[in-house]
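Support reply, case 0932

Customer input (verbatim):
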Amino acid sequence: MRNFLFLLFTVLSPTYISSQNNLFAKENSNTKKKLERFLKQNDIPGMSVSISYEGNIILSEGFGYSDIDNKIKVDPSLTKFRIASISKIITALTLMKLNELDSINIDNKPSFYLDSISREKYNFTIRQLSGHLSGLKRNPSGERWDQYNDYTEQKFYNSLKKDDLDFEPGTQFQYSNYGYKLLGLLIEKRCGKTIIQCQEEYIINKIGMTNTIPDYNLNKPEIANFYVNKGGTIQKSPYMDCKFKYAQGCHLSTSEDLIKLGNVFFKPDLIFNSYRPVQIMAKQQVLSSGSKTGYGIGIMSNVDFYNNSFLGHNGLENGARAILRIYPKYNLIISILINSQEPNLEDLTTEVIYSYIERLKKMHN
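Our regenerated output:
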């Protein structure tokens, strides 16, 4: 796996990049038609899609509008969408950088770093926490997902005292935003800054994600409006206050910036001193029963419908869906962002990338 998962990119000439685009000319043409149909069939206001091969973008297109009322078209290099839980990859990379710096040992328990955490009650490792094996609920009691959200660190600790684990750590997989809030507090304690500042210092700024920012509900032309379909009528989605949600989600980004994020798994020296941290992240965690979970540290590690292995993450937030997939064997990355809560993007992503994979298979036969 190492031979194809962590290929170093060379600096390529414009001529070579152009030849790559020509290589996939048929696939790009068919993909655009497929995406346009998907947009219309599902009444999606706007969509941004970027695909890269060997570190170079081979397709990057905007479809529809980021703002329906003002007819602002989607630009894949500039239009910022909610990426929701794809932020967990950023948080996990930040964790692994602190692990590399010997600031956090992922096999320690949270209580090793946070005095306010009960060692007896929360008897799981940071590795388990970041892989959704801790037993924590999906979301803490008392948290809101709308403009009235006033959840704070103190309220989080109050929830921890009240909420019991749903199962013994390591025995089940249960996706948990709750867990990533705790992970964010751990990172802040060891980093000495806010989670946003830590993410920016160690990851976002390092890899040049210049169009990736926290969601502060800013009203700017380059930030998409977000919509829901109610009874066939497209309406603006209610705003969600992102207070105390930045470790688990609540970032805005472009489809092209997400390609940069995916590229870390091919060129880890952008952040790390070795391949080891991303290898650890990409490895599926295992339950006490021996079953694999399909999830590593902050990232999915699975196969699609056609049995092609990928790393990645999905995202769902008020008025938005997002997906990022990295196909290591084929040096392909795809990101899709929409400003609509429906539909899901998994099948579309699988079908789009399938044509590029088949093209590469034919080339190498």
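We compared this against your earlier run and they match. Two observations from our side: Confidence is low (pLDDT under 50) at residues 1-17. Residues 28 and 59 are 7 Å apart (CA to CA). Please reopen the case if you see a mismatch on your end.
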